[in-house]
């Protein structure tokens, strides 16, 4: 692993487009990048790790503004030493768990319609039909 990355290389390694990296710097999600004498941005491995964390938190639905306090922690910091942040991440985790449970319920319902398994599966809707013909697959 190299010690320094251009913005193009950082984008390739993290999957975040170059313009998005610049935007994240402008709004304070990412710290301002170091600069070479020619003013080109230089990213270090720790910067790429932060970018990957942003991607991960974004995939969970966390708004960018809510990420900022977590991104200020150093790698290896014990979040439990920050009670407010610890509580926030636990709340966020609970929301994600609820979403996963809801999506699993929907997936089970679709499976019951498509492959005829678990007829007791519900989609969380009252008075739902037991089977939709258009979802049935012919063997």
UniProtKB/TrEMBL annotation:
Ranges for domain HTH merR-type: 4-73
Protein keywords: DNA-binding, Repressor, Transcription, Transcription regulation
Top-level taxon: Bacteria
Pfam short name (any one): MerR_1
Record's protein name: HTH merR-type domain-containing protein
Organism, scientific name: Paenibacillus cineris
């Amino acid at each position: 692993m190299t010690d320094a990355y251009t913005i193009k290389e950082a984008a390739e390694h993290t999957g975040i487009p170059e313009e998005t990296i610049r935007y994240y710097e402008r709004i304070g999600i990412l710290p301002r990048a170091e600069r070479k004498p020619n003013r080109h941005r230089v990213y270090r491995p720790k910067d790429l790790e932060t970018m990957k964390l942003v991607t991960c938190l974004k995939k969970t639905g966390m708004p960018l503004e809510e990420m900022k306090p977590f991104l200020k922690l150093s790698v290896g910091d014990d979040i439990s030493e920050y009670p407010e942040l610890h509580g926030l991440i636990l709340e966020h985790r609970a929301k994600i768990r609820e979403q996963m449970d809801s999506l699993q319920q929907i997936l089970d319902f679709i499976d019951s319609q498509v492959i005829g398994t678990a007829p007791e599966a519900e989609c969380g809707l009252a008075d739902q039909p037991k089977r939709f013909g258009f979802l049935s697959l012919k063997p």
